[in-house]
Each structure stands twice: as structure tokens, then as C-alpha cells.
Amino acid sequence: MKLDTDSIDNAVLALLHLGLHDGARAWMSFDWDALARLHEKGYITDPVGKAKAVTFTAEGLRESERLLGTLFGKADQ
Questions:
Q1: d(CA 15, CA 72)
Q2: Closest residue by Cα to residue 43 from 71, 8, 9, 7
Q3: How far apart are CA 65 and CA 73, in angstroms?
Q4: Strand (E) positions, 1-77?
Q5: What residue ranges do the domains of the chain occupy?
Q6: Residues 6+ apart with CB under 8 A from 47
Q7: Neighbour-count burial for 23-54, b at 16+ CB within 10 Å, e otherwise
Q8: Which of 10, 50, 67, 72 is the most exposed place for a label (fewest CB within 10 A)?
Q9: pLDDT tens for residues 10-20?
Q10: In this structure, how many other beta carbons lie within 10 angstroms of the beta carbon of residue 71?
Q11: CA-to-CA separations, 76 to 62, 69, 73, in angstroms, rounded
Q12: Pairing state of beta strands 20-21 and 25-27?
């Protein structure tokens, strides 16, 4: 099966927002390939290292919040 890595990256970016702490930091407990792609796209700092968290760029923080609502938000009823 061929996977849509852009869709995976969008979901990971949105889910990273759930682990947000200390302003723009998020716990990084996701697939390393997806995290590397998000870094290449300019949404997060380099995930390679000893830290257990990454830092969102300003654009990444905005986009992660938007995707969280788009992918997982419920419409008000």
C-alpha cells in the first residue's frame, strides 16, 4: 500500500499540538520520518538529538492549531 505522506504529516502536526507546553514546545513521540519531513517543511526544529521535545516555528504553531481543528474538531451543535 502506498501512503499519502502529506496526510500523515498533517495529522502528526495537528497531534503534536496536543502535547504543546512551554509556549511552543511539544513532546515528540511520533514517527521519525514524519518528524523529519515536518522539519524540512519548516514547521518544527530539528528532531534529531537528546531532547524529548521539538519547538514549533511560528508558522508551524499556527498550522498545527489550524489542522487540529480541521482534522479533529467537532462542529458546534
A1: 9
A2: 9
A3: 10
A4: 20-21, 25-27, 53-55
A5: 5-71
A6: 28, 32, 35, 36, 38, 39, 54
A7: ebbbebebeeebbebbbeeebbbebeeeeebb
A8: 50
A9: 999 998 888 88
A10: 13
A11: 22, 12, 9
A12: antiparallel
How many other C-beta atoms can be found within 10 angstroms of the C-beta atom of residue 62?
Answer: 12
Which tens digits make up the pLDDT trace of 53-66? 889 999 999 999 99
Fold designation for 5-71: Arc Repressor Mutant, subunit A (1.10.10)
- CA atoms within 13 A of residue 62's CA, in its CB half-sphere: 4
User: Cα separation of 39 and 57, whole Å?
Assistant: 9
State residue 26 phi and psi, 5-degree precision. Answer: -140, 140
**pTM beyond 0.85:** no
CB 53 within 8 A of CB 25: yes
Tracing cell 462542529 back to the chain, one arrives at 75
